[in-house]
Amino acid sequence: MNKRTLHWSYLNIKDIPMDLYLYEDLEELYLKENYIAAIPKWFLNLTTLKFIHLAGNNLTKLPEEIYLLENLEFLDLSQNQLTTLPETLCLLTNLEHLNVSTNELEMLPNDINSLRRLETLNISKNHLKRLPLHLCELSRLSNLNVSDNVDIWHIPERIAYMPSLQMFSAERCSLIYLPVALAKFIGYLRIFNNGAVTHIPVIYEKFYQSFYETIAKVTNIVMSHENLFWVLEKETNTKLLLPIGTRRVFRVPSKENQVSLYDDCLKSLEYLNRLTPIYNNPALNYILPEKFMVDHIRNGPIARCTFLQCSNPLFTSYYFMVVKRRGSTSRRLFTCYFCTQYCANEWLCDNHKKYYTIDWQLYDN
Fold first, then answer.
1. pTM for this structure?
2. In a 3-state reduction of DSSP, which class is residue 362?
3. CA–CA separation, 280 vs 282, rounded Å?
């Protein structure tokens, strides 16, 4: 039979019918909201398929041979009971859209960065504890949704700063601070519904709406306080947690060129990493003089300079400001991070009519 699209959703079927073999040119298959518990081996011979919609079934695992569907471009497995994804899923090199939201996943496949054509990834409403750093290698990824993973408390800068990212959602996680970097072309952002966040990097300001201030619930986070860096702003005496990895912060104004030579070396290596990715190279352990340098290159910068014309990577030390909107009833605190005092002064010159600065001091936890 010559039919490219088949709609068998909402039919209460428990097994994928073998009648599919009759459709030799089948490309799109809708089987959502049924009771299908397994994908049979014979199904993997339907290699003409480009679009599979299996949302709302009873799948608990995928066959290891899933890679045989070599022409697959769209795969929706949301609202099932999947606990793991096979590594062979990452061999679907034509895959552009993957939705595995509302499952029971605790981790993603190690080789997910092999899905080089992936444009949309929805992993919301699972049990993920962290985002693998190599997600940043998905150079075409434009839409990423990680919302409702309540154990995720940190978004790596390398992921938030992916060049092609246009839509990003991380609502109702357990974020303790927002990543101090944002992809330049993001037009849709949902990240403010995280109750433990006490301040917003000013680069998020255009996405921030006052109704987010009604979010009063503070997430209970169990984690070590070792190596956390806090400051206390003096207007409302609020403790602000700075990005993990911060060692020193400097006021504005203060002496110029206080950022360490160590950070300058890391910045140079980060520029090299842009040209030739080296952050995952095991040889770094032998090339670089100290192991902390290796960790910083692998994990990426902890922030980016707030002055957009600069956007230099920041690693352990930076100039820091706390600001609030002028003439606004909003209680929200915004924060700024700069690589030099020059960048801080330029940003202040451009924005002094919109914001005023708030004094702060180091907080010894």
1. 0.90
2. strand
3. 6
